[in-house]
Write a structure and sequence with these properties.
249 residues, Rossmann fold, 10 helices, globular
Length: 249
Amino acid sequence: MSTSDTLFAGSIPAMYDRYMVPLLFRPYAEQTAQRAQALSPMHILETAAGTGVVTEALHGALPTAEIKATDLNPPMLQEAARRVTSPNVRFEQADALDLPFGDGSFDLVVCQFGAMFFPDKVKGHAEARRVLRPSGRLYVAEPLARGPHQYIIELFHDETAVRKGAAEALAKFARPQFATDQIATYAEKRSYSDFDSFAARMIANMRFNGYTEEAVLAPAVRRRFEETRAAHGGRFDQPVRIDCFGPAA
């Protein structure tokens, strides 16, 4: 396990689930599950499953499907296993760059907010394609490097390069490997009553993201928050691009 993985141990997975999941992951997980439901898959692989918010949503939408939810970090999967208990859901430690599954094992591979952190994004997408059946689909959801929320947080937590890298990897490998790419964009509706409420939420999440309280409270961040609130009527949405790669229609 790498140094970064060991950070998500002890009480961290539960805290991650408490603070990060409601803000960043649950609304998109519900969108992911709704779109997956329309595909009617029976064998699903989830990579970078974390504490299982997408797994839970997938199981709720597709209760008879067999789901294998994987992540590099065992403590995160332990938290996920407490969230979802079903004979149709199995949690397993696995590297998305070297999946321990045979070729053509799944109808659907799902990765929400994980591909942008793969050390080798091309290899990660290649592995997803390998374990998919010829008629299978790859579903990838990634936050876009734009929008009101991104405009503010880039001052202290800039993921622009990471998010652009993920989009480039999709274009370089995933898209050429599939006959179709259905693209959708979903923007979670976020609002904060004032700067203090925004700062409190960001500070609660800072231990998972590597920035400091001082950075969040910097005058430049406050000014940009007020500018954005005035321009967007108090809305701080974060758009997400959803790619569903599959066979020819």
